[in-house]
Amino acid sequence: MTASSAPPPGTGLLVIQAVRKKHCAECRSGPLPLLVLEGGVPRCLDCADLGHLVFLPRGDTALTRRSREESTLSAVVVRFDRRRSRYERQGVLVEEAALARAERRCLLDEEARRRRRLRDAERRAAEDVRFTDAFAAEIRRLFPGCPDERARAVAAHASLRGSGRVGRSAAGRALSEAAVVSAVAASVRHVDTPYDQLLMSGVPRPEARRRIAGLVDETLGRWRAAG
Ligand SMILES: [Zn+2]
Protein backbone atom coordinates (compact mmCIF):
# COMPACT_ATOMS: atom_id res chain seq x y z
CA MET A 1 0.00 0.00 0.00
CA THR A 2 1.46 3.36 -1.04
CA ALA A 3 1.47 6.47 1.16
CA SER A 4 -1.17 8.19 -0.96
CA SER A 5 -3.57 5.30 -0.49
CA ALA A 6 -3.26 5.17 3.28
CA PRO A 7 -6.61 5.56 5.04
CA PRO A 8 -7.21 9.02 6.49
CA PRO A 9 -5.97 9.26 10.10
CA GLY A 10 -7.85 10.64 13.04
CA THR A 11 -11.31 9.39 12.15
CA GLY A 12 -11.47 6.76 14.86
CA LEU A 13 -11.91 3.12 13.95
CA LEU A 14 -11.69 2.56 10.22
CA VAL A 15 -13.27 -0.23 8.25
CA ILE A 16 -12.33 -0.60 4.62
CA GLN A 17 -14.60 -1.73 1.82
CA ALA A 18 -12.25 -4.05 0.01
CA VAL A 19 -11.53 -3.25 -3.60
CA ARG A 20 -9.22 -6.22 -4.06
CA LYS A 21 -9.95 -9.72 -2.82
CA LYS A 22 -8.47 -10.14 0.64
CA HIS A 23 -8.77 -12.84 3.25
CA CYS A 24 -8.72 -12.53 7.00
CA ALA A 25 -5.21 -13.04 8.36
CA GLU A 26 -6.64 -14.69 11.46
CA CYS A 27 -9.55 -16.94 10.46
CA ARG A 28 -8.77 -17.08 6.73
CA SER A 29 -12.35 -16.25 5.75
CA GLY A 30 -12.94 -14.28 2.60
CA PRO A 31 -12.85 -12.68 0.21
CA LEU A 32 -13.82 -9.97 2.66
CA PRO A 33 -16.34 -7.27 1.68
CA LEU A 34 -15.29 -5.29 4.74
CA LEU A 35 -11.99 -5.49 6.56
CA VAL A 36 -9.94 -3.86 9.24
CA LEU A 37 -6.23 -3.22 8.78
CA GLU A 38 -4.19 -3.76 11.89
CA GLY A 39 -0.51 -3.16 11.31
CA GLY A 40 -1.11 -3.57 7.58
CA VAL A 41 -2.74 -6.96 8.12
CA PRO A 42 -6.38 -7.46 7.03
CA ARG A 43 -8.86 -8.93 9.47
CA CYS A 44 -12.55 -9.68 9.11
CA LEU A 45 -15.02 -7.76 11.24
CA ASP A 46 -15.62 -10.74 13.52
CA CYS A 47 -11.93 -11.15 14.26
CA ALA A 48 -11.64 -7.39 14.77
CA ASP A 49 -14.55 -7.57 17.26
CA LEU A 50 -16.77 -5.40 15.07
CA GLY A 51 -18.99 -8.18 13.76
CA HIS A 52 -21.98 -7.10 15.85
CA LEU A 53 -22.20 -3.67 14.23
CA VAL A 54 -24.64 -2.75 11.48
CA PHE A 55 -23.89 -0.64 8.42
CA LEU A 56 -25.53 2.75 8.01
CA PRO A 57 -24.83 4.20 4.55
CA ARG A 58 -23.85 7.85 4.35
CA GLY A 59 -26.50 10.39 3.35
CA ASP A 60 -28.50 11.18 6.46
CA THR A 61 -26.19 13.48 8.42
CA ALA A 62 -28.35 13.80 11.52
CA LEU A 63 -29.01 10.07 11.74
CA THR A 64 -25.30 9.31 11.27
CA ARG A 65 -24.21 11.77 13.95
CA ARG A 66 -26.76 10.52 16.44
CA SER A 67 -26.05 6.87 15.72
CA ARG A 68 -22.39 7.45 16.54
CA GLU A 69 -23.33 9.40 19.67
CA GLU A 70 -25.56 6.56 20.81
CA SER A 71 -23.08 3.85 19.93
CA THR A 72 -20.37 2.84 22.40
CA LEU A 73 -18.41 1.31 19.56
CA SER A 74 -18.55 2.63 16.04
CA ALA A 75 -16.41 2.71 12.93
CA VAL A 76 -16.21 4.75 9.77
CA VAL A 77 -16.44 2.75 6.55
CA VAL A 78 -14.26 3.99 3.69
CA ARG A 79 -13.50 2.81 0.19
CA PHE A 80 -10.52 3.73 -1.91
CA ASP A 81 -11.52 5.73 -4.97
CA ARG A 82 -8.91 5.02 -7.64
CA ARG A 83 -9.95 7.90 -9.84
CA ARG A 84 -9.63 10.42 -7.03
CA SER A 85 -6.73 8.60 -5.39
CA ARG A 86 -8.24 8.89 -1.98
CA TYR A 87 -10.45 7.16 0.54
CA GLU A 88 -14.13 8.16 0.43
CA ARG A 89 -16.54 7.75 3.33
CA GLN A 90 -19.23 5.20 2.61
CA GLY A 91 -21.02 5.23 5.92
CA VAL A 92 -20.61 4.04 9.48
CA LEU A 93 -20.86 0.84 11.45
CA VAL A 94 -22.84 1.27 14.66
CA GLU A 95 -24.60 -0.84 17.25
CA GLU A 96 -28.05 -1.86 16.12
CA ALA A 97 -29.67 -0.57 19.33
CA ALA A 98 -27.86 2.74 18.87
CA LEU A 99 -29.18 3.03 15.34
CA ALA A 100 -32.70 2.35 16.62
CA ARG A 101 -32.34 5.03 19.31
CA ALA A 102 -30.97 7.50 16.76
CA GLU A 103 -33.84 6.78 14.38
CA ARG A 104 -36.30 7.38 17.21
CA ARG A 105 -34.63 10.72 18.03
CA CYS A 106 -34.81 11.78 14.38
CA LEU A 107 -38.48 10.81 14.20
CA LEU A 108 -39.21 12.80 17.35
CA ASP A 109 -37.43 15.76 15.80
CA GLU A 110 -39.49 15.41 12.66
CA GLU A 111 -42.65 15.27 14.76
CA ALA A 112 -41.53 18.36 16.70
CA ARG A 113 -40.84 20.20 13.46
CA ARG A 114 -44.25 19.18 12.10
CA ARG A 115 -45.96 20.50 15.23
CA ARG A 116 -44.00 23.73 15.09
CA ARG A 117 -45.04 24.22 11.46
CA LEU A 118 -48.67 23.69 12.49
CA ARG A 119 -48.34 26.23 15.31
CA ASP A 120 -46.72 28.72 12.95
CA ALA A 121 -49.52 28.28 10.42
CA GLU A 122 -52.13 28.78 13.13
CA ARG A 123 -50.36 31.88 14.41
CA ARG A 124 -50.15 33.34 10.90
CA ALA A 125 -53.85 32.61 10.32
CA ALA A 126 -54.69 34.39 13.59
CA GLU A 127 -52.49 37.33 12.60
CA ASP A 128 -54.23 37.50 9.23
CA VAL A 129 -57.62 37.60 10.94
CA ARG A 130 -56.43 40.33 13.32
CA PHE A 131 -54.99 42.29 10.40
CA THR A 132 -58.20 41.94 8.36
CA ASP A 133 -60.27 43.11 11.33
CA ALA A 134 -57.99 46.09 11.94
CA PHE A 135 -57.98 47.02 8.25
CA ALA A 136 -61.79 46.79 8.01
CA ALA A 137 -62.16 48.90 11.16
CA GLU A 138 -59.85 51.54 9.67
CA ILE A 139 -61.92 51.57 6.45
CA ARG A 140 -65.10 52.07 8.46
CA ARG A 141 -63.48 54.87 10.47
CA LEU A 142 -62.36 56.75 7.32
CA PHE A 143 -65.39 55.83 5.20
CA PRO A 144 -68.42 55.45 7.45
CA GLY A 145 -70.63 55.22 4.36
CA CYS A 146 -68.74 52.31 2.86
CA PRO A 147 -70.95 49.23 2.91
CA ASP A 148 -69.84 46.76 5.55
CA GLU A 149 -69.51 43.91 3.06
CA ARG A 150 -67.26 46.01 0.87
CA ALA A 151 -65.09 47.11 3.76
CA ARG A 152 -64.56 43.47 4.70
CA ALA A 153 -63.84 42.41 1.12
CA VAL A 154 -61.23 45.16 0.68
CA ALA A 155 -59.67 44.29 4.05
CA ALA A 156 -59.55 40.57 3.22
CA HIS A 157 -57.87 41.35 -0.09
CA ALA A 158 -55.30 43.56 1.62
CA SER A 159 -54.69 40.80 4.14
CA LEU A 160 -53.99 38.30 1.36
CA ARG A 161 -51.47 40.66 -0.14
CA GLY A 162 -49.48 41.32 2.97
CA SER A 163 -50.76 41.54 6.48
CA GLY A 164 -49.45 39.54 9.40
CA ARG A 165 -47.11 37.60 7.16
CA VAL A 166 -44.95 40.64 6.57
CA GLY A 167 -44.45 41.54 10.20
CA ARG A 168 -45.57 44.19 12.60
CA SER A 169 -43.97 47.27 11.04
CA ALA A 170 -45.07 46.40 7.52
CA ALA A 171 -48.58 45.73 8.82
CA GLY A 172 -48.49 49.12 10.50
CA ARG A 173 -47.50 50.77 7.24
CA ALA A 174 -50.25 48.86 5.45
CA LEU A 175 -52.72 50.33 7.95
CA SER A 176 -51.65 53.91 7.31
CA GLU A 177 -54.40 56.24 6.11
CA ALA A 178 -52.85 56.56 2.66
CA ALA A 179 -52.68 52.79 2.24
CA VAL A 180 -56.27 52.31 3.38
CA VAL A 181 -57.59 55.08 1.11
CA SER A 182 -55.64 53.66 -1.81
CA ALA A 183 -57.08 50.18 -1.24
CA VAL A 184 -60.63 51.49 -1.05
CA ALA A 185 -60.11 53.67 -4.15
CA ALA A 186 -58.83 50.65 -6.07
CA SER A 187 -61.93 48.72 -5.10
CA VAL A 188 -64.21 51.58 -6.18
CA ARG A 189 -62.33 51.85 -9.46
CA HIS A 190 -62.87 48.18 -10.31
CA VAL A 191 -66.33 47.66 -8.85
CA ASP A 192 -68.18 51.00 -9.16
CA THR A 193 -66.80 52.42 -12.39
CA PRO A 194 -66.39 51.17 -15.96
CA TYR A 195 -62.61 51.23 -15.47
CA ASP A 196 -62.08 47.53 -16.27
CA GLN A 197 -64.30 47.70 -19.37
CA LEU A 198 -62.35 50.74 -20.57
CA LEU A 199 -59.08 48.85 -20.17
CA MET A 200 -60.50 45.83 -21.95
CA SER A 201 -61.67 47.95 -24.86
CA GLY A 202 -58.15 49.20 -25.36
CA VAL A 203 -58.28 52.57 -23.63
CA PRO A 204 -54.77 53.33 -22.31
CA ARG A 205 -54.54 53.10 -18.53
CA PRO A 206 -53.81 56.82 -17.81
CA GLU A 207 -56.72 57.83 -20.05
CA ALA A 208 -59.03 55.27 -18.42
CA ARG A 209 -57.99 56.53 -15.00
CA ARG A 210 -58.64 60.13 -16.06
CA ARG A 211 -62.11 59.26 -17.29
CA ILE A 212 -63.22 57.55 -14.10
CA ALA A 213 -61.42 59.84 -11.62
CA GLY A 214 -64.53 61.93 -11.05
CA LEU A 215 -66.64 58.86 -10.31
CA VAL A 216 -64.07 57.53 -7.84
CA ASP A 217 -63.79 60.84 -6.01
CA GLU A 218 -67.55 61.15 -5.88
CA THR A 219 -68.01 57.70 -4.38
CA LEU A 220 -65.19 58.15 -1.88
CA GLY A 221 -66.62 61.55 -0.90
CA ARG A 222 -70.05 60.06 -0.34
CA TRP A 223 -68.60 57.25 1.79
CA ARG A 224 -66.53 59.69 3.83
CA ALA A 225 -69.53 61.91 4.55
CA ALA A 226 -72.23 59.37 5.29
CA GLY A 227 -72.27 58.30 8.91
ZN1 LIG B 1 -11.43 -13.39 10.69
From TrEMBL:
Highest rank taxon of the organism: Bacteria
InterPro entries: DUF2293
Pfam families per record: DUF2293 (PF10056)
Domain DUF2293: 138-224
Name of this protein: DUF2293 domain-containing protein
Species of the source: Streptomyces ruber
